[in-house]
Design brief:
It contains 10 helices and 9 strands. By secondary structure, it is α+β, with helices and mostly antiparallel strands. It has one domain. Helix 2 packs antiparallel against helix 4. The N and C termini lie far apart (48 Å). The structure holds protoporphyrin IX containing FE. Protoporphyrin IX containing FE binds next to strand 5, helix 8, strand 8 and helix 9.
Length: 392
């Protein structure tokens, strides 16, 4: 049976976006399934007292920029922790100021749209900065980190470029304009001084959608994010208190080879309808796929080697990840998916990825070339800059 839609008003009020975007206040957002026009009221997953970073359950902005930094190799132990703490304090202040500036330069009342207007009329906005630490960092600084923070294993079919992997500190910047993410990136890198040096960066965008709005499409032309968890499912599977994990994969896609296939075959590979995102046996976009459902002739309605079958939460005791992916295009021969997913335990990613390598026809069109995992700390609050939980 398809799962009933769970209507969620997941767009925070403008004010909460601005504050949360700066990482200094309360986030009152729910998950991205059923993305809807702004409504203001927090969804059922919202907790007034939560200090969660923005950019996780925030509805997707048009562009993303992932920044990976390495801690100065000379820095270790308490001295290293002190330096990093100073950087994160500067970042927390700068991000708060960025948002305040956007607010005061605002030229008109945008209502509860979660967006600010820049002086001169350019839309900035909905900038979110989401910070995490990589698996190598806590040990070097003599800090306690959760056991789940460890390097991802290697997977069959990966062709990882070490220069696009890992990092001690990861920042996901998202906004409706690449100018906004670039300007913020420049500020963060400047404030990092010699303590954190840039390791790699990857920009991403949402391709124009023929249906306008709704779930974004990937470069294969399919809606990507339809089966994301509801607000309640996020409470159970994405958040661990106010923290979560981010998995980043830069996945090269053989876009042209895939495009040459008949739509019917493409849909068999993905396991959902290309036009609507609906399951192959009917229903609508946000309905769950039952990977074991059969038709009257006893054939699986969703092919056993389809992507949604390999990725099905039913094979993980219901565990879900929140995908918030973007596309990337770095020249004509290198384009793909900047896969971004949040979950309470990155072991889920490893299980799904292993199944994809073993039993997913989509894997023939994909190749991971970059990879990173980060522990996304609780958000900042009054008197508690980013990183306070880890660095004291
Ligand atoms: C490599 C490029 C990838 C592409 C183009 C892609 C595309 C898609 C599409 C079109 C869907 C169906 C619509 C939706 O629910 O979003 C989907 C579902 C899903 N994908 Fe991927 N995906 C990719 C990689 C991955 C990876 C690496 C993982 C995790 C290891 C993953 C996990 C999932 C999950 C969990 C679902 C939802 C399954 C469900 O609940 O029915 N995907 N993906």
């Amino acid at each position: 049976m398809p799962k009933a839609k769970n209507a969620v008003d997941d767009t925070p009020t403008r004010r909460s976006v601005l504050i949360a975007g700066a990482g200094i206040g309360l986030t009152a957002t729910a998950c991205t399934r059923e993305a809807r026009p702004p409504a203001g009221a927090p969804g059922p997953g919202a907790h007034a007292a939560r200090r969660r970073q923005a950019g996780v359950t925030t509805p997707q902005q048009a562009t993303a920029l992932i920044l990976a930094y390495d801690l100065d190799p000379a820095l270790r132990g308490t001295a290293g922790a002190r330096e990093l703490k100073a950087v994160l304090e500067r970042w927390t202040r700068a991000l708060a100021e960025t948002r305040e500036t956007a607010e005061t330069q605002q030229t008109g009342d945008t209502g509860d749209t979660g967006e600010a207007q820049e002086a001169g009329g350019g839309r900035v906005a909905r900038l979110t900065a989401t910070l995490g630490v990589g698996p190598g960092l806590p040990d070097r600084l003599g800090l306690r980190a959760p056991d789940a923070l460890r390097d991802l294993p290697s997977f069959p079919g990966d062709r990882l470029d070490p220069a696009r992997c890992g990092g001690d500190v990861l920042v996901q910047l998202c906004a409706d304009s690449a100018d906004a993410t670039e300007a913020t990136a420049a500020t963060l890198t400047r404030l990092a001084g010699d303590t954190l040096s840039p390791r790699w960066r990857q920009g991403g965008f949402l391709p124009p959608s023929p249906d306008g709005g709704g779930t974004p499409r990937d470069l294969l032309g399919f809606k990507n994010g339809s089966a994301n968890p509801t607000a309640e499912e996020c409470e159970r599977w994405v958040w661990s208190g106010d923290a979560t994990y981010l998995v980043v994969r830069r996945v090269h896609l053989r876009v042209e080879d895939f495009a040459r296939l008949a739509v019917h075959r493409q849909e068999e590979i993905v396991g959902r309808r290309r036009a609507t995102g609906a399951p192959l046996d009917g229903g609508s976009e946000h309905d769950d796929v039952d990977p074991l459902a059969k038709d009257a002739q006893g054939r699986y309605t969703t092919p056993p080697r389809s992507h949604v079958r390999a990725a099905s939460p039913r094979l993980d005791d219901g565990a879900r990840m929140l995908r918030r992916s973007y596309s990337y295009a770095d020249g004509p021969t290198d384009q793909g998916l900047l896969f971004l997913a949040f979950m309470r335990d990155p072991a889920l990613f490893a299980r799904v990825q292993r199944r994809m390598a073993a039993q997913d026809d989509l894997a023939a069109f994909t190749q991971a070339r970059g990879s990173a995992v980060a522990y996304v700390l609780p958000g900042a609050g009054p008197g508690r800059p980013l990183g306070a939980e880890l660095l004291g």
